[in-house]
Design a protein that fits this description.
Elements: H1 2-12, E1 26-30, E2 33-42, E3 46-47, E4 50-55, E5 61-70, E6 73-82, E7 88-97, E8 102-110, E9 127-135, E10 144-153, E11 166-173, E12 178-185, E13 199-212, E14 218-228, E15 233-241
Antiparallel strand pairs: 1-2, 2-5, 2-15, 3-4, 5-6, 6-7, 7-8, 8-9, 9-10, 10-11, 11-12, 12-13, 13-14, 14-15
Length: 242
């Protein structure tokens, strides 16, 4: 109970927050807001240091994203479909930008959709709800911090209760195109991160390059080299934003 109270206090107590934005390659603006559409093609799907297709290396994934923004509020949908057919994910999110540096986000994860998608009961649902608080970093010291805690759904401990899996990530730009990051699971998370107690699960570098295709068209290309110390695994992901 003490751990749960600490986590909930951390989430709703106003800790630092900043959301990771997906690059948008198409935007349509109306008087009531802006729609952005993009899609990433990645060589494999690694999420917070955890392979999403088991331990065999995975397969390429297509990851579309649609976002609607109106002022400080935005809602969006993000998905991932593996070429192997093993991962089919549909996530929904809502973000409130408190300022240019601070935001609050609620995410509805649904990884494999094994059950009725519209089943939202705590036991038996495929959905997991997560609250995120983050800070983008000041210009003088651009260290970003995000805290993410799952608070409802298919994230249980051995007793069948909510595990409140929590993930902390720090990021720091080494240059305009290279960013270092480190992420850790803060509490016992047997289902999501597979750890007991505190564990560093995601360390690496992300490098981005703008690839010029024509005089008027360019594509962002990126590579992520990282490791999961808890699993003793390394990964190298290549991606392109369409």
């Amino acid at each position: 109970m003490k751990t749960k109270n600490v986590i909930l206090a951390t989430i709703f107590g106003g800790m630092l927050f900043a959301t990771l934005a997906v690059p948008a390659v198409q935007a349509q603006t109306s008087k009531s807001g802006t729609f952005t559409v993009s899609a990433d093609l990645v060589s494999s799907y690694i999420w917070r240091g955890i392979p999403q297709e088991g331990s065999k290396g995975g397969s390429p994934n297509i990851q579309p994203c649609v976002t609607y923004t109106n002022g400080i509020f935005s809602i969006g949908a993000w998905g991932s479909s593996a070429f192997s057919g093993q991962v089919k994910e549909v996530d929904l999110c809502a973000t409130l930008a408190m300022s240019k540096d601070f935001s609050i986000m609620i995410t509805d994860y649904n990884w494999n959709n094994n059950h009725n998608y519209f089943n939202y009961q705590s036991h038996g649902t495929d959905h997991i709800y997560e609250a995120t608080l983050a800070y983008a970093g000041a210009q003088a010291f651009p260290l970003s911090v995000s805290v993410n805690t799952m608070f409802y759904g298919d994230d249980k401990n051995a007793s069948g209760n909510n595990a409140y899996s929590s993930y902390l990530e720090l990021g720091y730009p080494l240059s305009s195109m290279v960013k270092a990051f480190m992420g850790a699971s803060l509490v016992d998370s047997p289902m999501i991160y597979g750890n007991s107690n505190f564990a560093v699960i995601n360390i690496g570098l992300r490098a981005t390059k703008i690839m010029k295709v024509t005089d008027t068209f360019s594509l962002p290309v990126y590579g992520i080299l990282g490791c999961n110390p808890q699993l003793g695994k390394a990964f190298f992901v290549a991606g392109i934003t369409l």
